[in-house]
UniProtKB/TrEMBL annotation:
Annotated catalysed reactions: N-terminal N-formyl-L-methionyl-[peptide] + H2O = N-terminal L-methionyl-[peptide] + formate
Cofactor note: Binds 1 Fe(2+) ion.
Keywords attached to this entry: Hydrolase, Iron, Metal-binding, Protein biosynthesis
Regions annotated as coiled coil: none
Protein name: Peptide deformylase
Organism listed in the record: Algibacter mikhailovii
Annotated function: Removes the formyl group from the N-terminal Met of newly synthesized proteins. Requires at least a dipeptide for an efficient rate of reaction. N-terminal L-methionine is a prerequisite for activity but the enzyme has broad specificity at other positions.
The encoding gene: def
An example molecular function term from Gene Ontology annotations: peptide deformylase activity
GO BP: any one term: translation
Length: 196
């Protein structure tokens, strides 16, 4: 089932999320719905807060990036096959010189800005079977993980912008929070009531 994506301005996007256990109710259905929602919105990642749940869960599928002709064949292959579920993730280490990339977010449609992040990360997490992993990632895969990880920490990519950039996009952010945005996927805006 395609779920509405929570828009900028909703308090759930600024909350630090809570860990979950393997007895989380209807977990398989939740995962299926999140993947369906992400693909419907043409996203490469989706975090639980973006569907209104303050839990430490996000998913990543970087395959759309694999079509970039500027990448090496090895990079295209890595991006084309990377699909993961991250539960109770913790970034243990971030390493290297920060690099810039133009980021966007399904909760903040039509806003894209340059964000600086470290190129290499080490993450401990549980997969969809609640099995533990500690892995290192780099490049675009690391960046997508960092972006989604920020969501479960209550941080948005716009929080990483300079105060000057924030002032420049303030009216656009206000419009998004008021529902004055044209998107081709379902959204829930802060002033809308939840539908049961």
């Amino acid at each position: 089932m395609i779920l509405p994506i929570v828009a900028y301005g909703d308090p759930v996007l600024k909350k630090k999320s809570k860990d979950i256990s393997k007895d989380y109710p209807k977990f398989d259905v939740l995962l299926e719905n999140m993947f369906e929602t992400m693909y419907n919105a043409s996203g490469v990642g989706l975090a639980a807060p973006q569907i209104g749940l303050a839990i430490r869960l996000f998913l990543v599928d970087t395959s759309p990036f694999a079509e970039d002709q500027d990448l090496t064949e090895a990079e295209q292959k890595a991006l084309g096959t990377f699909k993961r579920v991250f539960i109770n993730a913790q970034i243990i280490e971030e390493d290297g010189d920060e690099w810039v990339f133009n980021e966007g977010c399904l909760s903040i449609p039509d806003v894209r800005e340059d964000v600086f992040r470290k190129p290499k990360i080490t993450v401990s997490y549980l997969d969809e079977n609640f099995e533990a992993h500690t892995e290192s990632f780099d490049g675009l895969i690391a960046r997508v993980i960092q972006h989604e990880y920020d969501h479960i920490e209550g941080v948005l990519f716009t929080d990483k912008l300079s105060s000057f950039k924030k002032r420049l996009i303030k009216s656009r952010l206000t419009n998004i929070s008021k529902g004055k945005v044209d998107v081709d996927y379902r959204m829930r805006f802060p002033n809308q009531k939840k539908k049961r």
